[in-house]
C-alpha cells in the first residue's frame, strides 16, 4: 500500500467521504460526512439529498479506496435538500480495515544500522576535493509518532537517506527486537530532527500473529466511536 493512502486515525477529526443508504442497503447519494461523538450524531452533506421524515432509519457509510470501511446507523433528526442529520447513532467497523490506518503513537525505540557509512577518501592530487559524507552511527535513538500494520513513522536527530535499511527495537507498547525497516519517504526536518516514513520489510512468524492482533485492538480502540 502506498503511504499516501493511509488514514491518520484521529477521533477528533471525523469528517470523510461517505455514501448515504436506506436501511435496506439501497445507495442514495455520495457526499461528505461529519461525526459528533459528543452528540452521538452524524451529518451527511451533498449537492442534493432526498428529504426524509424525522425518525426514518438510515445508514451513512465511510468509503476509502472504493471500500466501505465504517458504517453509521441512526434515525433522521434533520432533513434538508443538502444535509441530513442522524441521531441515536451506532457504528460498525468493517472487518480487516485496520490496514488502511496509521495510528498515532508516542514511544521510544532504537535503530541498528549494520551498513553505517564510513567517510570516503578525498580526491587525488589533481582532483577537486570533496567533503566526505557524514557517517551514520551504528545505533541511534528515535521517537515513534505513528504505526501501521506494515509501516512506521518516527523522528530522529540522525539524517537518514531515503532507501536506508536498518533494524528497529522497542519495548513499549509492543516488544520488537531487530525488526527490518526501510526508509521510504522523508517527511520533513523539524526542530526535533528528521521525520521519516518507513516500511516494515518483514516480520518473524513468531510475532506476526501477535502484531496483527495488537494493530486490530488499536484499530478498535481508536476508531470505534459509539
Q: What is the CA-based Rg, rounded?
A: 23 Å
Low-pLDDT parts are 118-122
Task: Please state the overall shape, judged from the principal axes of the Cα atoms.
Answer: elongated
**Largest sheet properties:** 6 strands, antiparallel, barrel
End-to-end gap: 29 Å
The largest sheet has its strands arranged as 8-9-10-13-12-11
Structural class: mainly beta
Give the SSE string: EEEEEEEEEEEEEH
Find the count of extended strands (DSSP E, 2+ residues). Answer: 13
Mean pLDDT: 89
**Percent of sequence in beta strands:** over 45%
**Helicity range:** under 10%
Can you describe what's shown?
This protein is mainly beta. The chain contains one helix and 13 strands. It has one helix at residues 205-223; strands at residues 7-8, 15-22, 27-36, 41-45, 57-64, 67-79, 83-93, 101-112, 139-147, 151-156, 165-170, 176-190, 193-200. The strands form two sheets. A six-stranded antiparallel beta barrel has the order 8-9-10-13-12-11. Strand 5 and strand 6 (67-79) form a beta hairpin. The longest helix is centred in the last third of the chain and has 19 residues, at 205-223.
Tell me briefly what this model is:
The protein is mainly beta. It has one helix at residues 205-223; strands spanning 7-8, 15-22, 27-36, 41-45, 57-64, 67-79, 83-93, 101-112, 139-147, 151-156, 165-170, 176-190, 193-200. It is built from one helix and 13 strands, in the order βββββββββββββα.
Keywords:
226 residues; mainly beta; 6-stranded antiparallel barrel; 8% helix; elongated
Amino acid at each position: 500500500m502506498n503511504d499516501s493512502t493511509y488514514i491518520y486515525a484521529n477521533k477528533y477529526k471525523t469528517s470523510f467521504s461517505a455514501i448515504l443508504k436506506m436501511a435496506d442497503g439501497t445507495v442514495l447519494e455520495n457526499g461528505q460526512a461529519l461525526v459528533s461523538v459528543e452528540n452521538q450524531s452524524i451529518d451527511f452533506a451533498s449537492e442534493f439529498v432526498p428529504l426524509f421524515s424525522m425518525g426514518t432509519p438510515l445508514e451513512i457509510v465511510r468509503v476509502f479506496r472504493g471500500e466501505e470501511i465504517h458504517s453509521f446507523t441512526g434515525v433522521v433528526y434533520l432533513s434538508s435538500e443538502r444535509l441530513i442529520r442522524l441521531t441515536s447513532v451506532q457504528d460498525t467497523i468493517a472487518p480487516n480495515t485496520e490496514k488502511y490506518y496509521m495510528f498515532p503513537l508516542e514511544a521510544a525505540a532504537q535503530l541498528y544500522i549494520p551498513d553505517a557509512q564510513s567517510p570516503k577518501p578525498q580526491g587525488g592530487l589533481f582532483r577537486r576535493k570533496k567533503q566526505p559524507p557524514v557517517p551514520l552511527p551504528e545505533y541511534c535513538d528515535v521517537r515513534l509518532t505513528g504505526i501501521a500494520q506494515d509501516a512506521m513513522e518516527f523522528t530522529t536527530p540522525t539524517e537518514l537517506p531515503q532507501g536506508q535499511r536498518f533494524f528497529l527495537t522497542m519495548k513499549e507498547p509492543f516488544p520488537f527486537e531487530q525488526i527490518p525497516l526501510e526508509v521510504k519517504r522523508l517527511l520533513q526536518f523539524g526542530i526535533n530532527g528528521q521525520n521519516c516514513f518507513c516500511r516494515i520489510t518483514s516480520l518473524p512468524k513468531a510475532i506476526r500473529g501477535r502484531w496483527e492482533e495488537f494493530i486490530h485492538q488499536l484499530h478498535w480502540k481508536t476508531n470505534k466511536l459509539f
